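Hey, I was hoping to borrow your eyes for a little while. A protein chain has come my way and I'm curious about its shape. Take your time with it, there's no hurry, and the full record follows here:
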Amino acid sequence: MEQVLSICVGIGLSAACGFRVFLPLLVMSIASLSGHLSLAHGFEWIGTYPALVSFSVATCVEIAGYYVPWLDHLLDTLASPAAIVAGTIITASAVTDMSPFLKWTLAVIAGGGAAGIVQSATVLTRGASTVATAGLANPVVATVELAGATITSIMALVAPILVVLLLLVVVFFVGRKVLRKAASVQTPVAFSPTK
C-alpha cells in the first residue's frame, strides 16, 4: 500500500507541475525537510536547504513572470517541456522500492504525462483568454493556475489517491468532450460533376 501511495503522491505532484513548474518541487522540498515525505535514493538533494532556497526563488520568479503580459506566453512556451521533465523527476523521486526500469517507465508515462496534460490545458486556456480578452483576463488565469498548483500540490501529500482519481475523472471528461467534438466535425463531401 505504501508503494501505491508514493506513486499517487508522485503523479499528483507531477500534475501540479502542469500549472506551475517549480511550486510542486518547492512543496516536495518542504515536505521532505519536515519529515512528511521520503525521497527515493539519489533524489535526497530535493530535501536540502540549498534546494529549498533555489525552488523558493524559482517559484517566486515564475509566479511573477505570469503576471507580465508578454512574458506569460514566453513562459508557457518554456514551461511545456519543463513541466514534463519536472513531472518525470518528481514521480521518480517519490517512488521508492521499485526497480529502476519500472520506476522510470512509470515516471515518464504517468508523471510526465500528467504534467503534460495539465500544461496543455493551461496553454489552451491562456490562448483562449488572450484571443477573447486581448490578454486582459490573463492575470485572472494566472491566479487560477497558481491556486490550482498550490491546492493540487498540498492535496497530493494529504490525499494522494483522491488527487489521482480526480485527475482521471478530468481526463475522462475532457477526452470524451474532445472525441465528441471530433466526431461532430464532418468531412466535406467531394464534388463530382454529373455528365
User: Anything to note?
Assistant: The radius of gyration is 19 Å. The chain has one domain: 2-184. The chain has seven helices and no strands.
